[in-house]
């Protein structure tokens, strides 16, 4: 028995799959940016070809799919038995969760800021109303698909609205965090980011986390902010030298967790003070948000790896490599894990370089845990389901 345990340990150490095994994967034939949604034993997600899928949660088999009018860069929400999803054209669809039939749609407008603006806003349901960023507006829509009110900003709104205590929170590329009254969309307060020499707008690209009366978010001005959710004044900010903070955030009772862009790090910060607890150095960006499950953090990276990290120590327990990363990793990274000689992230051909990075099977969404299984999408077109041991 002792020999068997040692053998299993050695095999696990060699293969690097300790703590997880692949249950199933589904190939959607186009890159996946969105975070999957689980509802009534089905998993919902969209891809870059504008196809929206419903899979059987247990087997990964396709139940249905529908074709939307543009690529899907946001995540779905539930309104009763309707699945809400929007595409890059700005159209919001309400689909029957069992059949995929369109019950109604709302046509807005939207566009992409730059090649690093990977996400659109996603719908949020609060008190049977739908809130979503479309172009430079936050729009409130009824359960029947009718506009109730809207609030204009001076920049794109691609953060998913957060709702708490009758208030709607969202960020804009104009560098402001807004707090609105959910009933009529009246402005309660706005907080302006500091800005940075080369990014003076201090754009807020992603979602706002509301946790115990504090609003947490990152900015393109290299800062993580903690703001009083009721009054809109600052508690603290954490300056990350040389990197946007685009990652969504998650918190437990004491700690805030998020990734960075160009410095290729993952951070654990004290929730109350912003003081650094630990950092994990990686070799690529983290834009998708982390998920907490028991004593671990799960998050994806542009290098095509899904990481399982001890949330108290910041040590990697295990990691899972996507098919795209297995195939293309050696074209970008050397055996030491660093970029190969001559590879430039932001050279003259930065657009082509970014496309090449995404061939690694980059993970841009947030992993979802359900019943001891982990689900996430990849830019290699696969939706992966891992069984957690």
Topology:
Elements: H1 2-15, E1 20-27, E2 37-39, E3 42-46, E4 51-56, E5 62-67, E6 77-79, E7 82-86, E8 91-96, E9 102-107, E10 124-126, E11 129-134, E12 137-141, E13 147-152, E14 162-164, E15 167-171, E16 176-181, E17 187-192, E18 209-211, E19 214-218, E20 223-228, E21 234-239, E22 250-251, E23 255-259, E24 265-270, E25 276-281, E26 291-293, E27 296-300, E28 305-310, E29 316-321, H2 323-332, H3 350-358, E30 368-370, E31 373-377, E32 382-388
Antiparallel strand pairs: 1-32, 2-3, 3-4, 4-5, 6-7, 7-8, 8-9, 10-11, 11-12, 12-13, 14-15, 15-16, 16-17, 18-19, 19-20, 20-21, 22-23, 23-24, 24-25, 26-27, 27-28, 28-29, 30-31, 31-32
Give me some keywords for this one.
Methylamine Dehydrogenase, Chain H; 4-stranded antiparallel β-sheet; 8% helix; 389 residues; 32 strands; mainly beta
Note down, in words, how this protein is organized.
There is one protein chain. The protein has a 4-stranded antiparallel sheet with strand order 1-32-31-30, with no helix packed on it. Strands 2-3-4-5 form a 4-stranded antiparallel sheet, with no helix packed on it. It has a domain at 247-389: Methylamine Dehydrogenase, Chain H (7 Propeller), CATH 2.130.10. Residues 1-17 have low confidence and may be disordered. The radius of gyration is 20 Å and the shape is globular. The protein is mainly beta and 389 residues long. Helices cover 8% and strands 42% of the residues. It is built from 3 helices and 32 strands. A hairpin with a 4-residue loop joins strand 3 and strand 4.
